[in-house]
Amino acid sequence: MRILLATHNRGKRREWQALLRALPVDLLLPEEVGLAIEVEETGTTYAENALLKARTLCAASGLPTLADDSGLEVDALDGAPGLRSARCAPGDDAVRYRTLLRALEGVPDEARTARFRCTAALVLPDGREFLREGLCEGRITTTPHGEGGFGYDPVFLLPELGRTMAELSAEEKNRISHRARAAQQLIPLLRELIRESGGER
């Protein structure tokens, strides 16, 4: 089954390929089907943004399209940065997570609870739409740790493991991350759709 992934990020494609590796799916990027569309994320929720991207690229390509939107929600900051996680400060990932650490200066460990949230949208050419969500609970550290991952991973502690997301192997992250949990919710649906299309017996 050919599925268009609504991103130009090859790293995100690698992550989704790993998450869906048990399925006979071919994940394509927009440029691989001749599309150079940039979809502005004007939604007020993760679901709205994911659907905006998936609907636009599904309509343009005629292919089933998968999109996701995700963010970090910090309880002591009333859920910020949330939808603005990737845009909360100009600069690279380190600038953003250091901005977050400054905002949390003086906040005690027990009040630094946070979660990564991912909403995945699958839109089909026949008009059907599906949403699945994944959450990963944790806490914000006071200093960054680890070299892996991206975004806020170096400051997102998983208390049950005693490590940040950036200290996990790719295999570990792909079992417990918010995107992994959204993917786990999608897999039974995708299996059914592949059966419908005659792609799996």
Structure description:
- This protein is an alpha+beta fold and 201 residues long.
- It is 31% helix and 23% strand.
- It contains 5 helices and 8 strands.
- Strands 1, 2, 3, 4, 5, 6, 7 and 8 form an 8-stranded mixed sheet that branches.
- Helix 4 packs across helix 5.
- The longest helix is centred in the last third of the chain and has 19 residues, at 178-196.
Topology:
Elements: E1 2-5, H1 10-19, E2 26-28, H2 46-61, E3 65-74, E4 81-82, H3 93-103, E5 113-123, E6 129-140, E7 156-158, E8 163-164, H4 170-176, H5 178-196
Parallel strand pairs: 1-2, 1-3
Antiparallel strand pairs: 3-4, 3-5, 5-6, 6-7, 7-8
Helix pairs in contact: 4-5
In short:
This protein has helices at residues 10-19, 46-61, 93-103, 170-176, 178-196; strands spanning 2-5, 26-28, 65-74, 81-82, 113-123, 129-140, 156-158, 163-164. It has 201 residues and is an alpha+beta fold.
- Which second-level CATH architecture applies? Alpha-Beta Complex
* CATH class term: Alpha Beta
Shape type: globular
Q: Please identify the structural class as seen in this structure.
A: alpha+beta
Low-confidence spans: pLDDT under 50, at least 5 residues? none
Amount of helix:
25-40%
CATH topology: Maf protein
| Tally of helical segments | 5
Evaluate the radius of gyration: 17 Å
**Secondary structure tally: strands:** 8
Number of domains: 1
